[in-house]
Write a structure and sequence with these properties.
Elements lengths: L13 H17 L4 E2 H10 L20 E2 L4 E3 L6 E4 L6 E10 L34 E9 L11 H10 L9 E6 L3 H4 L3 H10 L3 H4 L8 H5 L4 H21 L3 E4 L2 E4 H9 L6 H12 L15 E6 H5 L12 H21 L10 E6 L6 E6 L15 H4 L29 E5 L3 E7 L2 H6 L2 E2 L2 H11 L4 E8 L7 E10 L4 E4 L12 E7 L4 E6 L1 E8 L2 E5 L3 H7 L4 E2 L2 E2 L6 H12 L1 E2 L5 E4 L3 H6 L5 H16 L4 E7 L5 E2 L7 E8 L23 E4 L2 E4 L8 H13 L12 E4 L2 E4 L1
Parallel strand pairs: 2-4, 3-7, 16-20
Antiparallel strand pairs: 1-9, 4-5, 5-6, 6-7, 8-9, 10-12, 11-12, 13-14, 14-19, 15-18, 16-17, 17-18, 19-20, 21-22, 23-24, 25-26, 26-29, 27-28, 27-29, 30-33, 31-32
Helix pairs in contact: 1-8, 2-8, 5-8, 10-12, 17-19
Length: 732
Amino acid sequence: MTSAMTRGYDAVPHEDRDRLRRYLEAVIAHRRGPVHTAVAFNAVYFGYDLGGDGYGGSPLSPDDFPVITFGERAPALPVGAMVCVATGSEPLYAEIVYKEGAHPDVGALGDVPAWVSGAPAGAEGPGRPGSGAAPLRRELLVPDLHAFGPALSLSPAQLHRLRLRRRWINGDGHVVVDVRYPSRDSARCDDLTSYTNHLLTTARAQLLSPFVPVSLAELMGSTHDDDLRAGLRGLLDTVRGVLDSTETLRSWGHYAITRASLAACWRDAGPLGGDDLKTFVAAVEHAAVPVRRRYGLSSPVTVYTAVGPRLRGFPEATEALSGLGYATAVCRANVALADVVRRDSEQGLFENGCRIALDDAFEGGGVWRSHHPGDAETPTDPLTPAGRGWLSTTTTPPEPTAEAEPVDLPLADTAALGPGELLRSDEDEIVWRAPLRLAQLIDGWFPLHSHVVRELRRTHGRRPTIRLALDHSGEPDGTEAVVDVTAELDDGTGRLTAVAWPHDFFPGLLLELRWPRGGTVIHLATAPLDEPVQVGGRVVGHCFDPCVLTREDAPGSDRHGDTAAGLDPRQLVLRTVRRCGLLTLDGHALLDRSGLPRAVYGRAPARSQAAALESAVVELLAERLLEPALGSRDVWSQPHYPARGGERTIPLIAYRPARPRVIRPWGGTGADGEGLRGVQFVPGHLRRLLPGRSPSEVQRAAFRQHCRRLGKADGWELPPGYTFVTEHTRGY
């Protein structure tokens, strides 16, 4: 740091800018999450070691850090603050690297009441800003628990225990606190002003330490508050200017991420990778588009979507959203959506008539506003938060009289229609298995495995004609029907098109495909169940995927289309619970009962519609087509089932499609009372490991799936020292 840097970015010579730029690029590449301007300042000012010790060798005194306690009230702390997280035993030192609003009214799928978007701290409801001079706001803080190097960090086992207990940090390694701001003006300060105030007050001893690489007092030649404040503003402006000027970084607000990591995310096919980002962007873009028009007219629709909670709805995203990964995922999603708005819209107005704009940059990781019809609004900069949600409630709106149209949230479970599970690949043939999806049934296609795509394209070109031999086993005329279809083969991906599926094929039906190498015939077969089972309104006689069947065979979904339009209240309730409920591996779906009307209509419906839905729920529960259940909601408004201790319980409505299969214990008997004739059924169980051994990631995942199958929808983690043995059969 030089004295010129205290006067701002424009005053810094080019060679000093370049030196600072190289260091900050190295810091951002080294740290695992996005780097805020305040955090980048910390790295430069306090001396962040890239060798692995972080701030461990800096002049910071951890004993002076403010203490924060999970779930309790705390002073306002900006991003960049060094803190001690209370744990009841070993101190947990951390740097706050990200924070966002965690309003309890934000829904589990990211749906936000209009008044919350852009509301001031301390707001009590629509149009009610609150009267207290010191407003209170719930915030989620993401601490970097390894910022001070291994000497001042807890071991992985200790951190794992803290996450499991959820007493000092939550299961993701984050801290949720109720923040008390000293005044309403302080709550409205921008990030850098808040951090400047923090350094000049709470962290003043750290700022003026004589052991920092270069003291601000020395750079300014003064310890007067006005001089120190001016110098801090200049240094932060210099750091921000350097971050904005480098071509290796992308920024979302004050958070910088590397372009390389963003590109790698787009290439990633896993949870919250490129496919999920595309699904998220499409969901926001189409959130307010009416399903259908009634009598040629439709009333305006506005939907507010919070990025962070919406990302939690993607399958297998839990681990990717833990620790610093949450901040990374939120920034990537916002950057992706901002890029689409810049590229594909006219000041936020898309061709589908919907206007998309960022409405609140803080709450829930960012709240995006989707409005239809968008051409009726005055265009503004779509990436400048306008707080229209809150402003729309400052005057009392009339009670809605027009009936809302039902809407469908995107099916998060079908974000990526992959090729399925590879069963065998040898010199003779390739065999794989996958469930039939609704989109494939409607449009007449099916994905090919990548192994098949590569070989077919090499030997038969991009668009060969393939003979598809269908064997629908168990039918009276169980012969093989052969039809000609077209294979569309691209780089690494491919599918069969123009497939005329048999009339009794349904979403979730398990299909096994076999391709003899070198040929142009693909054999597709189904497998019969020992006994038919009743799943909802369908009698199923063949092996199926219960999760797909629950999601995609709901009322309003068939081979002719997928829409909630025209359904009666009972059908709407069943469809919404099945499509939007928390899903377990056996196809059991559970939905927060209080959130049902908004999930059905995308917004608060007219009172008559809400009453009709509640009446339908009562009827379905009485007929046992739905079941009552109890869950809980944690401090950042995420629902859980079963209910967790210490959390507020909430009523759930549950759809259970079929009685789960019973795994017989050793020495059990068959359904006919006879012995198992040499076969032992071994249920899934824990097994202690030898000292120094650890379970594989496959077994960790299998244990979480086992817990979900037993009814715990979000799973458990393996206890230390144990692995999981999956269920299997053993012959004598």
